[in-house]
Structure formats: C-alpha cells, structure tokens
Q: What sequence folds into this?
C-alpha cells in the first residue's frame, strides 16, 4: 500500500509516472526501490531537489519565453529614464546659472535646490501604493514603503555625500561659465569608469572604451579656451577655487554612481522601480538636510526674502526660478538613478558626459556665451561616442540572445533524449 507523501503534488507527477512506468525499479544510493511507491518517492526527490528535473526545465523555459516582452519593456523604461536624465542634465545648470547671473548669491541655497524637490517623488510613490492596494487583495498586507533598514542606511550615507556634491557644484557654477563648469564635469566619466571597475567589476568592451575615449577627448577640446572666457569682474583666485571645487564635485559624483549600483547588489531584497524611487527620496532628503545645516550656519533663510526683492527679474520670477530649479534638478537625479537601475552606472555617466555639448549650445543661445569651433568638434565626438556605445550594446544583446537560444535548444534536446531512454 502506498503511504501518502506530504507536499508532493500528485497532479504534477502523473505525466512522468506514465512516461516512466516501464522503468518500474530505480537505483537510489546503491539500493533498489521497487514498485509504484519507489517510483513516486524517487520523482518527488527529483522534483524538490534537482534543477535538472522536468518541471524545473519547463519553468525555466516559461521564464525564457517571457523574456522578450520583459526585455522590450525594460528598454522602453530605460529610454524614458534617459530622457528624464537629459532634461535634468541640460536644464539644471542653465536654471542654476540664471539664478546667479541675475543677482542670486546664496551658494548653500542653490545647492539645497538641487535636491530640495524630493517631495515630488511622493506622487509616483502614492500612485504605486494605490496600484498595489488594488491588485494585492484584501488578505495581502500592503505597506507604503518597502525599504529595509539596510538599504535605508546605505541610501542615507550616499545622500550625505550627494549633499556635499551639491555645494561643491553650486560653488563652481557661481564662479564659472556654464561652458567651463561643463568641461570640468566631463572628467566625471573617468572617475565613474574607474570606480565602477573597482566596486562593481564593470566589464568594458571595445565599444564602451571607444565611447569613453571619444567623450574624454571631446571634453578636453572644450577646455582649450576656457581660461580666456571667465566671468567678468571675477578674480583669478575665485576662478581657480571654483575650478578645483567643481573638479572635486565631479570626482565625488563619479564615485556616487557606482556606489548606488553597488547598493543595488548588496541590498538583500528585491530591487523594484518603486524601491528605486524610495532610495532616491531618502538620498535627496539627507542631501537636502546636509545643505540645510549649511544654510542655517550661513543665515541663508533670513536672506532669501531680501534677495528676492533685489532680484533683477523681479520678486515673482525669483521664486519661479527657484521652484523650477528644484524640479529640473530632481529630474536629473531621478533619471540618473533610473538609468543605473535599468542598465549601469557607466551608461549613466556616459549620458551625462555626452550631453555636455548640448548644454554648451543652449548656453550659447540663452546666455550668449561664445560657441567656438572646438565646441562644434566636441558635439560631433559626443554623437560619435553615443553611436559607438549603443551599437556595441545592440551587438552584445544580440550575441547574448543567441547564446540563450542555443542553451535552451540544447537543454530541450537533452530532455527529449532522456525521456526516450526512460
């Protein structure tokens, strides 16, 4: 008589039982298990413990069949985050520069605005929470935040570093032209590439190395005449201080991007885009808190109303510039962390650096900064690097897909051969 076997799905066993009926006796660890009971026990052991079991193979095949649709959605979301990053990367420096050229002087306040728009993230988080409530069912416990303490602590630490970057970059924009600060920020790509290699073992292909080299050369070309087009009325000491503080900001942010990717790998919980939004909010909150301390020490809060009244464009437009600065910069950080989630920190850095010539063109249009021939060459090299990188990604994805298809076909063939011998 066959004794009942707990946790063994009998309906899943029937196909295999029929197929293997002729193999009525199996050898298990040197002993023979006879009869139908031995057959059932053997299959249950295979079902629970072996990844090469028939059901395990079928589940893997089903996952692989879902991959193309998921891959298409991933590319669409990656493209959306690239657009958001582009808006913040090009618009952020321009709006910040507008604040300074029209009478704004508070550097800590300007750095505070870079991450001060973090409450905006509550909007997509609320929408995601309501969607989980709708689809989760009455028996499912749904929480607004899914972040665990480990991820919260890492996000807070990275947020403090981001706050320091906010201040260093704001000081550079206050003392340098947009073209000069953009040239210095381009060095961030080299820092990101090195940090990504050390922290997350980033693999480089010939296409990605070519893109890095082209962008670095293009950024260097941008700096050929930066020493002759500094802001009017600025001392050499202020210019050099702004230069080196901006360089420090580029180096530190080049470290932050791989740190975010490393946090994803060490999170010990499922990384969803909702969690990415939570991470972004925590990072921006602590970055804003860091700059708030600087504002309190520098007494910026007391000076805001007075500065607004003396602003060249008027008090109303002053607050409009301030609000839009916070919104546009939030696009930058949200897009950057989204690109890291769907791709890598290296791609995020490549997009940031590659859009520098676009920022140069916009600065020439809106602030009448000189657009020398060097900037045109840099723009061309930037476009070339983008084409090189994405062509390499397409080729890599195609080869990866072919390898997966070959592996799946081999597995199906082996499974068919085993079923015939059974």
A:
């Amino acid at each position: 008589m066959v004794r009942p076997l707990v946790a063994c799905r009998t309906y899943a066993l029937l196909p295999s039982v029929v197929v293997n009926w002729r193999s009525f006796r199996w050898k298990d660890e040197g002993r023979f298990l006879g009869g139908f009971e031995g057959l059932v026990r053997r299959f249950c052991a295979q079902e629970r413990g072996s990844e090469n079991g028939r059901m395990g193979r079928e589940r893997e095949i089903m996952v692989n069949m879902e991959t193309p649709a998921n891959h298409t959605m991933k590319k669409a979301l990656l493209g959306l985050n690239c657009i958001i990053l582009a808006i913040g990367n090009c618009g952020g420096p321009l709006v910040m520069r507008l604040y300074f050229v029209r009478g704004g002087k508070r550097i800590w306040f300007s750095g505070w605005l870079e991450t001060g728009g973090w409450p905006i993230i509550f909007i997509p988080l609320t929408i995601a929470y309501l969607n989980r409530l709708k689809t989760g069912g009455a028996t499912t416990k749904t929480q607004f935040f899914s972040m665990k303490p480990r991820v919260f602590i890492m996000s807070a630490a990275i947020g403090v570093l981001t706050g320091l970057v906010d201040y260093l970059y704001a000081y550079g924009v206050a003392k340098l032209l947009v073209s000069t600060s953009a040239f210095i920020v381009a060095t961030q790509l080299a820092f990101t590439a090195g940090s990504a290699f050390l922290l997350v073992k980033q693999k480089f292909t010939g296409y990605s190395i070519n893109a890095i080299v082209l962008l670095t050369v293009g950024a260097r070309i941008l700096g050929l005449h930066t020493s002759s087009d500094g802001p009017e009325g600025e001392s050499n000491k202020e210019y050099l201080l702004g230069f080196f503080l901006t360089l420090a900001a580029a180096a530190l942010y080049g470290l932050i991007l791989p740190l975010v990717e490393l946090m994803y790998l060490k999170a010990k919980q499922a990384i969803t885009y909702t969690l990415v939004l939570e991470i972004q909010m925590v990072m921006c909150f602590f970055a804003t808190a860091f700059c708030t301390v600087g504002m309190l020490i520098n007494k910026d809060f007391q000076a805001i109303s007075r500065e607004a009244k003396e602003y060249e464009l008027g008090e109303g437009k002053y607050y409009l510039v301030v609000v839009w600065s916070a919104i546009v910069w939030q696009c930058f950080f949200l897009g950057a962390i989204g690109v890291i989630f769907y791709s890598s920190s290296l791609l995020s850095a490549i997009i940031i650096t590659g859009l520098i010539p676009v920022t140069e063109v916009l600065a020439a249009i809106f602030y009448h900064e000189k657009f020398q021939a060097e900037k045109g060459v840099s723009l061309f090299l930037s476009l070339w690097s983008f084409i090189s990188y994405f062509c390499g990604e397409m080729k890599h994805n195609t080869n990866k897909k072919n390898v997966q298809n070959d592996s799946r076909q081999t597995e199906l063939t082996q499974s068919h051969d085993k079923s015939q011998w059974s």
The first strand starts at residue 26 and ends at 28. Residues 1-66 have pLDDT under 50 and may be disordered. The two ends are 25 Å apart (CA to CA).
